[in-house]
Amino acid sequence: MEIALTMPTQNGLAFRTSRSSLTCRRSRLNPLTRASASTTQTLTTESTETHLSNLNKLLQKQSPPPLQYDTQPLLKDSGNGSSPEKRFRNLFENLNLARILPEKTVDEKLLSPRNLKRLLSISPEYSPRNNLGSRWREYHGCNDWAGLIDPLDGNLRREVVRYGEFIQAAYQTFNSNPATSDDKAPLPRQVALPDRTYRVTKSLYATSSVGLPSWVDDLAPDLGWMTQRSSWIGYVAVCDDKREISRMGRRDIVISLRGTATCLEWAENMRDVLERVRGEENSGPLHLSPAKVECGFLSLYKTPGSNMPSLAESVVEEVRRLMDLYKGETLSITVTGHSLGAALALLVADELSTCAPEMPPIAVFSFGGPRVGNRAFANRVSKNGVKVLRIVNSQDVITRVPGMFVSEELDQKLRDNKKVAGVVEVLDNMPWAYSHVGTELRVDSKMSPYLKPNADVACCHDLEAYLHLVDGFIASDCPFRANAKRSLARLVHEQSSNVKKLYITKAKDLRLNLDNHSQGFSMTQSCLPSPT
Q1: pTM score, whole prediction
Q2: Which residues form a coiled coil (predicted)?
Q3: Residues forming a β-bridge with 5
């Protein structure tokens, strides 16, 4: 009798081996008793699977570290016989699988067709929305998210990703129609919210105080929106679903802001000299530095347009209106933004905290945000009760500017050292003495099994990459979670050059047309990151 062993490989080749005169023998691999030739030829599927299971266990015990690919197709059709472990080990060595699958750090479970089809599907899967109920204030930051960051609480992970998707909706709306007319008041924008339990109540615009010569528009008339002074930058939305309000434990007001997109916004980012916040000119002792923020950020926040109010006026007016509309209900205000939007989110939250005697709890969820102000501004925000959760990618350079390249850890050590108190005071009064605000959730592109370790700056700052990393984050000392739910389709489509080649190849082998995945997607990073 001849039993053939065939193994399909990644490049379509097949390997075949055979053994004649194969008989069944009693051994610890084969629990079957000695059988006749006719019995051997009619082995049942059940007994074969038992044999292979025992064989697989023995090979796992005696072989080197686990092979980084799926061996099931090879073992499924294998036969029995003498010295099986030697025969299979020699066969594996001859196949040179290290050459076929060179990225040995990949978990074989991630390469299964079922898992890849799920991860690369257009419709993403989400972690379940648990009832936050009486704990909503904790997830909203009343205790600065103590005990929820490292390891990352599952409910907080879901909330962070959800607020990030509100920013993606802002990007998508702007990219669908970036032009804004200076001759007449803008019409309301249609925003496709990812969460249908919310409804948009107000469109928000930011205006630059920087002007460019008129001849710039003549050079590229079709790209006039790149030099327009006022641009649609986000929206205000409110939860309007009774079941969702009950789940969250309150009615939530969301303010979502996109990142840098136009040339004038880039120009404002470059104006990185600190400027005093209004109302801080004569406050505090003379030896203490007043609260200051970046000049360009403040310009975009406070400058009105020709036919529209400033971002500051629009936000304050709309939040006051909603507070009056839902007076008597339990409310919360959540400000979320990416890149430039993360910087403006801090200015929004700071002003809202003082715009009324009794304000609802205010929290900021920022992604890839730069430094906004000095230490006095950070203290002011905290003193006003604003809770800030900064999601930071260790590989994202935008989170380390503007200002001097001093780590937050070193800055804190200097402040704790009384011997250098005078030096710290001098640093606080320097024109570029910036400081971050709030609690940090730090992720790392290198922890993702799908992204290349040397991913470029655009990928490390990309909002979808941030949401991908948050969805897979367990703790700072743990690997990327294998049961991450977020779809990879948008990440592969927008950052294909930064995704490991193995996954791109596998996606093509599965005949998944990634080009079609762009339909309905928000091109969240159509422009380069903010060059602050």
Answers
A1: 0.73
A2: none
A3: 17
pLDDT digits (tens, 9 = 90+) for 371-397: 999 988 999 999 999 999 999 999 999
Q: Are residues 231 and 358 in the same domain?
A: yes
Domain end point (choices 443, 462, 497): 443
Residues 484-500 pLDDT 10s? 888 888 888 888 899 98
| Tens digit of each residue's pLDDT (9 = 90 or more) over 54-101 | 655 554 544 444 444 344 443 444 444 445 445 544 543 444 433 433
Walk across the sheet containing 362-367 and list its strands.
Answer: 198-207, 230-239, 251-257, 331-338, 362-367, 387-393, 439-443
Kindly report the number of other CB atoms within 10 A of residue 288's CB atom. Answer: 14
| Distance, CA of 500 to CA of 446 (rounded, Å) | 12
Catalytic residues, by residue number, are: 339, 396, 461
Rounded (5°) CA angle 87-89-94: 95
Q: Do residue 96 and residue 202 come from a single domain?
A: no
Whether residue 185 is contained in a domain is answered as yes
DSSP conformation class of 435: B
Host domain of residue 40 = 2-102
Q: How many CB atoms lie within 10 A of CB 496?
A: 13
- Are 21 and 82 in contact, with CB atoms under 8 Å apart? no
Q: How many domains does the chain have?
A: 2
Query: Alpha helix (H) ranges present in 353-387?
Result: 375-383
User: Which of 375, 354, 515 is closest to 435 using CA atoms?
Assistant: 375
pLDDT of 8 > 60? The answer is no
Same domain, 292 and 398: yes
Please indicate, yes or no, if residue 498 is contained in any of the structural domains.
no
pLDDT, tens digit, for every residue of 309-322?
A: 999 999 999 999 99
> pLDDT per residue over 108-145, tens digit each?
556 566 666 666 665 555 556 788 988 999 999 999 99
Residue 485: closest CA among 233, 127, 241, 213: 127
How much of the chain is in helix, strand and coil states, percent to nearest 5?
Answer: 40, 15, 45
Task: Please name the residue that has the structure tokens 């930058």.
Answer: 233
Structure tokens at 445: 């592109």
Which CA distances in Å does 333 have to 189, 350, 366? 22, 12, 14
